[in-house]
Write a structure and sequence with these properties.
The chain is built from 21 helices and ten strands. The protein is of the alpha/beta class and 519 residues long.
């Protein structure tokens, strides 16, 4: 049994020749798609692995195993024959694939080695059935993805659900590093999972494809790994080719919130960046202070680039929500912190977004901010918080069109996000700059409905009312701000806003606020 594609034959050979028959996704992307950008290379690899699984589907076993970071040949399912002639290893292999120079170099090394690392396609199905899939050997936050249950014969279900789950796992990977175990190809039930004694940080996700009101939907249930108890069930996602990824961000956020709830005080350090962001967006000053203290405690014992980035981001909230005095950072400090984040770290785009936004909000260095935020978008185009940061940056530079585009994409992705109230304020700012004061007030009010104590929403509602010459309402917003934050320096905030904003917009706002004696 041989794949009918040279690329898939080569991929199979690389896996078979590797120690433990396991290779990282990053290494495979480098070998076969070295010249492609990261997103395209990752997509090409996913497609190749999907087709490779199909090549061996008649065996009735899941012989290719994939997780977030690695691709493996299932242990016990393959026999590797290393007795052949090294010089003829993969003889005739010719990949007409740009960017595969690293594979050609790998092949030369194999042929010059002491043993031919060939592969037999013989499987040991009985041995594989006797093994129980291992979900968590690392004692860290782990998510197992169970086989999809199909409750409809609609042929699109398999393709759409695969794309939806890839999008969901992509969102999770961009927000918190965790072990993700793809069990979709296995015939496995929750009770069959081989878990360590300490499995409180492990959950499993059950995907169900069904029809609802003539639409194809994906239902997702988060379960406890041993008992199968449903921990959380999410609203059904209507699966369409172009909109599925946009429907899954809020589910990814809720999954991470469930992990935080389960871990309680014993939080996995990998989840702390997410915990920091959750506490900030809660607008609970006590939670923000407690979280920052925990970050400081951990940083005293380790040098975590993600936690350093999160600590910088805390200062933005402290300064602009008036919680406590914020620490100061120079642009060189931000560059130093970001330089410590490994390029292959899964949270690199998130760190870039937090640091890039700080360059704008804390240092007023828009050139540095642009450079870093655009890199984050290249690495993680569906990271909603980064799209929001880009929208604010473009607005400050007077590029309304780019600001609207970034914000529109952010809104599409974050329809049910718990952070949507903050993104609404960005929309309010954009509408304000474009002269649509009614839309600006509508979005400010929408944000206040979600978060009545959100000083940011009150500020932009104040500006919106002032710009529409509704001075009494504008003063009411100012009184509400000072009631929530008696020591808040509104004049200093306006000065900072004007410093970061497009000069024409800034001048218009300044004149209006002064005319109504608001500053």
């Amino acid at each position: 049994m041989t794949p009918d594609s040279m690329l898939r034959c080569a991929l199979l050979a690389v896996l078979a020749a590797a120690d433990g028959m396991t290779v990282s996704r990053a290494r495979l992307q480098e070998l076969f798609w070295g010249l492609a950008d990261q997103r395209r290379a990752a997509g090409s690899l996913r497609s190749a692995v999907f087709q490779l699984r199909r090549d061996f589907q008649t065996i009735g076993e899941e012989v290719i195993v994939s997780s977030k970071n690695y691709i493996s040949l299932a242990e016990g399912s393959w026999t590797v024959d290393r007795t052949g002639d090294a010089e003829t290893f993969l003889e005739g292999m010719d990949l007409s694939l740009g960017g595969a120079e690293s594979f050609e170099e790998w092949l030369r090394e194999q042929r010059s080695g002491p043993h031919a690392k060939g592969l037999s396609s013989k499987t040991d199905a009985q041995n594989q059935r006797s093994k129980r899939p291992v979900v968590d050997r690392l004692h860290q936050t782990s998510l197992g993805v169970l086989p999809v249950e199909f409750r409809t014969n609609d042929s699109r279900g398999e393709i759409y659900s695969a794309a939806a789950l890839e999008a969901l796992l992509g969102h999770l990977a961009s927000m918190a590093p965790m072990s993700i175990f793809d069990l979709r190809g296995l015939t496995v039930k929750v009770g069959d999972l081989d878990l360590p004694e300490s499995s409180a940080r492990t959950l499993v996700l059950k995907p169900i494809v069904a029809k609802q009101n003539r639409e194809l939907v994906l239902r997702l249930e988060l379960k406890a790994p041993r008992s199968g108890r449903v921990v959380a069930a999410f609203p059904p996602v209507v699966m369409q080719e172009e909109t599925t990824a946009m429907s899954l961000l809020s589910i990814a956020e809720k999954i991470l919130d469930e992990f935080l709830f389960l871990s309680n005080a014993d939080c996995d350090a990998n989840l702390l960046p997410w915990a920091v962001l959750s506490s900030l967006f809660s607008l609970d000053s006590a939670a923000v202070t407690a979280t920052e203290h925990e970050v400081d405690r951990l940083l005293a014992h380790s040098d975590s680039p993600a936690l350093e980035s999160a600590k910088v981001f805390v200062q933005i909230f402290k300064e602009h929500e008036g919680f406590d005095p914020a620490s100061t950072y120079e642009a060189s400090d931000l560059v130093r912190i970001l330089s410590k984040v490994p390029l292959n770290y899964s949270l690199r785009p998130l760190c870039e977004s937090l640091i890039g936004y700080a360059a704008h909000m804390l240092c007023s260095d828009n050139n540095l901010s642009t450079n870093i935020l655009e890199r984050a978008r290249k690495h993680a185009p569906n990271l909603a918080i980064n799209l929001d940061h880009l929208a604010v940056l473009h607005l400050s530079q007077g590029n309304l069109s780019a600001a609207r585009d970034a914000h529109s994409r952010c809104v599409d992705l974050s329809a049910n996000s718990s952070w949507r109230y903050s993104y609404d304020i960005t929309g309010s700012m954009i509408a304000l700059a474009g002269g649509d004061y009614r839309q600006s007030l509508r979005l400010s009010n929408a944000s206040l409905v979600k978060k009545p104590r959100f000083v940011g929403a009150l500020r932009y509602a104040m500006i919106g009312f002032a710009m529409t010459n509704s001075a009494d309402n504008a003063r009411l917003m100012k009184r509400s701000i000072l009631k929530l934050r008696p020591d808040f320096d509104l004049d200093a905030w306006v000065e900072g806003l004007l410093k970061r904003s497009d000069p024409v917009f800034a001048n218009n706002v300044s004149i209006t606020l002064q005319r109504h004696s608001l500053i």
